[in-house]
Write a structure and sequence with these properties.
This protein is of the alpha+beta class and about 350 residues long. The protein folds into two domains: about 5-135, Creatinase/prolidase N-terminal domain (Creatine Amidinohydrolase, Chain A, domain 1, 3-Layer(aba) Sandwich); about 140-350, Creatinase/methionine aminopeptidase superfamily (Creatine Amidinohydrolase), CATH 3.90.230. Helix content is about 30%, strand content about 25%. It is built from ten helices and 19 strands. The strands form six sheets. The chain has a six-stranded mixed beta sheet, sandwiched between helices. The longest helix is centred in the middle third of the chain and has 21 residues, at about 140-160. The radius of gyration is 23 Å and the shape is elongated. The two termini are about 40 Å apart.
């Protein structure tokens, strides 16, 4: 991750939260947490933040990488257990209360920490970094925009390639190839390509099913640029859609647009879900829409804030969320339309640039 990201500010914000929760150290082996707080892009590391210093530990594989991409006061290349190494280096000698991410730490890792930190108090916490990550700064938004520009370009290319006889897997592979060709690091998640009856599966992974005329195709995909994810969904039609297909597409499109139009700083995320859901319900399709309207996007494809019926968050400027209602008719077809937007003071900025009106190929 390029060092233009303000890691110093992020660590300062974390220390403020540490003081509020009365802990004098924070420890994490979560890849997304480490990337956010110090820039590490590898697969194995340990970050320790105290009130005065940041320590980063990793193994030989990343010895050169940490020199160019990790922002920490002390970096340590160790063999074997990283928590063992941290203990031997006496990193925790002057601390008593150590916070760890209870939602991200494996039991085996916790047991090893307990063994290495005898006499210290391990305090489970939740959301301390996730809440910080929920508000994106300008550097993060620029990176996200790059990722969405790539996915938009991929969509424009792929709709020119899709034709009857192609399989879901072929389309999925083409999307993955195009992401990398345009400069993305990888797909944000397994590309979803769902044709006709398989479109009623909200997360149906690609199969060998072939495209035929008169079918909806749901395309849900995204890419990763400098660790940040894009996420978009479009439903297109091969051949002439039926009146029922066009009607349901319009219901979903209107629900998606109404919810997007309501986004602004200060509104509850629950309300955004309610707006889209109510529109679908009043049109008689409520029982065919079972998932939440959206979620946060950033260093992970699903993060805070949640946009769901039971969400308790209020949106704030800098949140990045998806708006993705859908209708799924079992054994017939499904329709989902998804944009990702940045919450602004009086509205939202749409990151997804691809058209939403029904595309017929």
């Amino acid at each position: 991750m390029p060092l233009q990201y303000n890691f110093r500010r992020r660590i300062s914000d974390l220390r403020h939260e540490m003081q509020r929760q009365k802990v004098d150290a924070f420890i994490s082996s979560s890849l997304s947490t480490m990337r956010y707080l110090c820039g590490f892009s590898g697969s194995h590391g340990l970050l320790v933040v105290t009130n005065s210093k940041t320590y980063f530990l990793t193994d030989f594989r990343y010895e050169e990488i940490v020199q160019t991409e990790v922002a920490a006061d002390v970096t340590i290349v160790a063999q074997g257990s990283l928590s063992n190494a941290a203990s031997k280096k006496k990193i925790f000698s002057s601390v008593k209360n150590i916070a760890f991410e209870k939602d991200r730490l494996f039991v085996a890792e916790f047991e090893l920490l307990k063994k290495n930190l005898t006499g210290k108090k391990l305090i489970p916490i939740s959301g301390i970094v996730e809440n910080l990550r929920a508000v994106k700064d300008d550097d993060e938004l620029r990176t996200l925009k790059r990722a969405f520009d790539i996915s938009d370009a991929v969509f424009q290319t792929i709709i020119g390639k899709i034709k009857p006889g192609m399989t879901e897997l072929e389309i999925s592979a083409e999307i993955s190839y195009l992401h990398k060709k345009h400069g993305a690091h990888k797909d944000a998640f397994d590309v979803i390509v769902a044709i006709r009856v398989r479109g009623s599966l909200p997360h149906g992974t690609a199969t060998s099913k072939k495209i035929e005329n008169g079918e909806f195709i749901t395309l849900d995909f995204g890419c990763v640029v400098d660790g940040y994810h894009s996420d978009m969904t479009r439903t297109i039609c091969i051949g002439t859609p039926t009146a029922d297909m066009k009607k349901i597409y319009r219901v979903v499109l209107d629900a998606q647009q109404k919810a997007s139009d309501a986004v602004r700083s200060g509104i509850s995320s629950k309300k955004i879900d309610e707006i889209a859901r109510k529109h679908i319900q009043t049109r008689g399709y409520g029982k065919y829409f079972g998932h939440s309207v959206g979620h946060g996007v950033g260093l992970e494809i699903h993060e805070l804030p949640r946009v769901a019926p039971k969400s308790k968050e209020r949106l704030t400027t800098g949140n990045v969320i998806t708006i993705e209602p859908g209708i799924y008719i079992p054994k017939k077809f499904g329709v989902r339309i998804e944009d990702t937007v940045v919450v602004r003071e009086r509205g939202c900025e749409v990151l997804t640039g691809s058209p939403k009106e029904l595309i017929i190929i």
